[in-house]
Structure formats: structure tokens, C-alpha cells
Amino acid sequence: MDTLSCIATRHSTRNFKPDMVPDELLHQVIEAGRLAPSGKHMNQNHFLVVRKPEVLERLTKLVREEFAKMEVTPENEANFGGAIKRSKKGDYVFRYNAPVLIIVANKASYGNNMADASCAMENMMLAANALDLGSCWINQLRWLNENPVLLSYLRELGMAEDERVYASLSLGYSALPDGLPNRRILDVTGNPVTYID
Ligand SMILES: Cc1cc2nc3c(=O)[nH]c(=O)nc-3n(C[C@H](O)[C@H](O)[C@H](O)COP(=O)(O)O)c2cc1C
Predict the structure, then answer these.
(1) Structure confidence at residue 40 as a pLDDT band (50, 70, 90)
(2) Is the distance from the beta carbon of residue 85 to the nearest atom of ligand 1 less than 6 Å?
(3) Which residue has the higher pLDDT, 185 or 99?
(4) Ligand 1 in contact with 154 (CB < 6 A)?
(5) Is residue 14 within 6 Å of ligand 1 at its C-beta?
């Protein structure tokens, strides 16, 4: 697949087969993230690649429990009001049960933390599409990135004291019958362009 087609056909997958991603493909996706540009070439993204089912389950449970303790407010409603409401109902699975979750952490004190994480995320999503894998940006660990319960568990998993989560990626095979990600090409709305000639 050429680069422009890969960009045009990349879409989020939110239904995954339970099948594990082969190591060789997973490593290629992670390398695409590691090859992303970073401000001043700092290369401070830290990729925590979670495949262990017990850890995925624990993260799912903790996210649900922590959101369930919160109330929807005018300030948070647009960002994670839906996550709070679904968590209170008790069946919220923020990562869509993908077999892999790649958590992208970076230094909390670094001004380009979110930008660098985002470059890595897009590279990984495009690599996934090129490799016939489905992926979806998952933001909940970022919204909870100062939550003490999540912070403590992520530190147990290897995140450093001075790091916080800025994004994460669910990765796996799409649950569509052919196992391929949805590659429909959509008209873009929004994102205005102003040419100044
Ligand atoms: C910063 C950012 C945060 C996102 N967070 C989530 C998320 O938490 N859960 C989710 O299902 N999709 C999330 N998405 C995916 C967007 O909803 C999706 O990219 C958008 O609706 C366009 O659809 P497409 O990816 O299929 O082209 C996020 C995307 C971005 C760029």
C-alpha cells in the first residue's frame, strides 16, 4: 500500500478478534512509533506494550472503577462524560477488548509530550493499516493520567515516576468477517484550509 492510500484508508477499529498479533507485526508497529519525529529529537516516548490478559483486565477494571467515582460536569462532559456514565452502569470496556494495548507515556514536565506521543500514535495507526491490523486511539488513560490509582498501577508496570500517559492504542485483528480493518474512503468535512497566495 502506498503512503497516501494508507493515510486515506486508515480508520478506527472498535471490534476486535481475540487472536493475538504476531510478534513480527507487533514489532513493526512499535518501531513505526519509535521512528516518529520528536521535538529536538528528544525521543522520550515510552511504549508500554500490554499483552498479558490479567493486566489488560486489571486496567479495564481500574479505569471503570475510577470513572465510576466521578461525576459528569460541564467541564468534563465533552471529554469523558460518556466514559463516566458507562462506567457507572458497570460494563464499560475502554479498550474494546483488543488483545494488545500500547500505552504511550512521556515526561510530564516536557512541553512537547502530547505532540511527540501524537506523532508516534499516527505512525503506529498507519503501520497497523499497512499490515492489515485494526487500531484505535484510546484516550481514557490520558484523561486519568493524574489519577493516583492508575498512576500507581502503571508505575508497577514500569512507567517512571516522572512520566504520564498521553495516549494509548488498541491493536488487533478486526472482527469483520475478513479480519481486515474497515478501509472505506470518506469525504472529509471540517478541517478548513485557507490558501494565502
Ligand atoms: C486525540 C484522539 C483521541 C481519541 N480518543 C478516542 C477514544 O478514547 N476512544 C475511541 O473509540 N476513539 C478515539 N479516537 C478516535 C476518533 O474517534 C476517530 O479517529 C475519529 O472519529 C475519526 O474516525 P476514523 O479514525 O475511523 O477515521 C480518538 C482520536 C484522537 C485523534
Answers:
(1) very high
(2) no
(3) 99
(4) no
(5) yes
